[in-house]
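For reproducibility, we list the full input for the 3,4-dihydroxyphenylalanine complex.
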Amino acid sequence: MENLNSIKKEILQKIKSAESDDNVEEIRIRELGKKGRITKLLSELGKLNQEERKKLGPEINDLKNKVLEEIEEKKEFFLDQTLNKKLLEEKVDVTLPVKSSQNTNGRIHPVSQVLDEITEIFGSLGYEIADGPDIETEYYNFNALNIPESHPARQMHDTFYFDEFDKDQGQSVLRTHTSPVQVRTMEEGKPPFRFISPGRTYRCDSDQTHTPMFHQIEGLSVDKETNLGHLKWTLETFLSSFFEIKNTKIQMRPSYFPFTEPSLEIDVLCDRSGPVLKIGEGSDWLEVAGAGMVHPNVLKSANIDPDIYQGFAFGFGLDRLAQLKYGIPDLRTFFSGDIRWLRHYGFSALDIPTLSRGLKK
Ligand code: DAH
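The corresponding predicted structure, in tokenized form, follows.
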């Protein structure tokens, strides 16, 4: 048997001065492989007498373990080195422009954009957001809003009916407007109320200005002294902020809705004399919303005493607001799912000038 100590010294020195992982692997095979030097020493133990075996056995095993340990450590060192080198070499240069074929970012739909803008503005005015189901009952969609069964307004709505029928709630319908959220929300809480409710609405109608599904935004403010002056200020403030113009004016025209008394059409000042419609200028008027003072019967539907509380309500077409603000002519294109349209009219998530900006000073 060779001198174990000198073997150990020699191997450890070789491991230490190895220059690559391959070098270390060569040492491992030479010493610990099937025909390796240490392997051979171990197999030769059998030929020795018991006493020698007892003495040399543990010594050779120690040698083997020590060599293994050193080899592993050195291998790990080279692995780290390769990784670090790779990390340095493969650094991404963020200053390089993106190839156009890789520019597949999504765009924000104008309806989502406008919805965000509107909620932000009403949020700044202290309005909460209320929600209701798309599949409504005749009761909430009509009766609770002072539209009884025989009322001609039911025909005006071109309602989609479901087969389902409940003896108290009537037939299920796709809601024809967001107004049912008024009663649903008031039933759940206590006055005063101040909320808006945006959402999808449905009517059996389709042409350049109508789609079977469209979006509305409902507004409701109920308190002891809420009046038409408050409504006027609220809508003028909202419209000025939304269209980003100073102090726009509205005109209130008498109208009729079963759930308001008096009922009004809201027109905003506009200029139609040039090639593009300008909101907030000129001397023309453009209809943008329906509104009015909440009918006492609607308050009663929500168990609110109309002798103590009164309020105003309004309803905007969300898609129409988007069309007006961003100059989008055909309503049907909003829902056609054409990616080219969305690239053109959509908004980038990282570069939106008006998103979440709230009321302008
Ligand atoms: N719900 C009405 C519609 O769909 C819009 C509307 C008018 C809502 C007057 C209101 C309102 O809250 O006060 O035609």
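The radius of gyration is 39 Å. Residues 4-90 form one domain. Both points were considered when choosing residues for closer inspection.
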